[in-house]
Fold each of these.
Amino acid sequence: MVAQLIRSIEQEQFRDIPEFGAGDTVRVHAKVVEGTRERIQVFEGVVIRRRGGGINENVTVRRMAAHGIGVERTFLIHSPRIDRFEVTRFGRVRRAKLYYLRNLTGRAARIPERRRDLNKAANVKQP
């Protein structure tokens, strides 16, 4: 009985997101509160991990910042703080977790693109 109630509440919190996985380049639009203002901050990078399931599913995105410094952020996929996800590239990888990218620099850290119809991934409605 309690499990059904929790499941129904979680079902309301689920969001429609495009299909993406490890190796794909995504643009995450996150809501950031600064003082009394709220703004949208865009973080674009390669998905190195997708973890969990259900309402607790999260994704770790890595990008290279200035001077070759790698920056990783973890986002809860169904969080109300996330405005939307955009998939910009599909990467061709053979692993589910791309932790090895942390040790690579320059061209070695590039992921080849997987040819896929972008319209299929963008078919999901964005809020």
Amino acid sequence: MRELIAKCCAVAVLCSLGMAQVDAGMLWVSDGNGKLATIDTQTWQVDVKGTMPKVMTDIAMDDDGKLWGTDRENMYRIWQNTAKITDITSGTKDFGNALGVVDGEMISLRPDYMMGINTSTGNISRTLRTDRLTSGDLEQFNGKTYMVSYYTKNNDYTNVLAELDVNTGRVTDIGSFGRKNVYGLAEADGKLYAASENVIYEVNTNNGHLTKLRKISQMEQIWGMTSVPETPVIPEPASAALIGLGIVALLGRRRG
């Protein structure tokens, strides 16, 4: 009887794992009015969580699913369900205008500098010189760290996609976005997304070209964008069922 129960439990657990859904396409965005929302990139459904009491220049979600934000001067913990914020600032009053998590470390950018942030204490843990201007976001994608930079010429400017080496501070240009006001950058469902005004684009990381995907009418100009941490790939139902059958067969052999 115990062996029969073990067989049934093994198959049930594995099949249920196979039918689980992976939340691989969820973006978090904040706009110039402090509004906080999620965007499902599979359905483009928008869920507005509320309005933060401070306007964030950027937001970032860490590997534990905690949401953080900066308004250039201070660093905040953002409570996702209510849009309430808690100031964690300690020491410095210059956290820059861009946030991103790279290999588990919270990174902030301000003109010419990159900073590591200890979110437990609110302190700057390290500083590197980049000698580059930042337009407001950075994101780790396919093993590389990308940032939005810009150049000013003849009283005008252009946004460019660049690669950042977080160990040395070196910045390498990839290409122009072909438009201004690109403030958001985030990875979801295996793609790199950018936000300009209240429109979401897909980014070509080979040349910086943007492909327009969707206008988000519920938001004003998007300033901050981040994504839910990636979850492990879960076998599809058919695969899980095959694994379960294999375990049952193995249990049967052991019984004999």
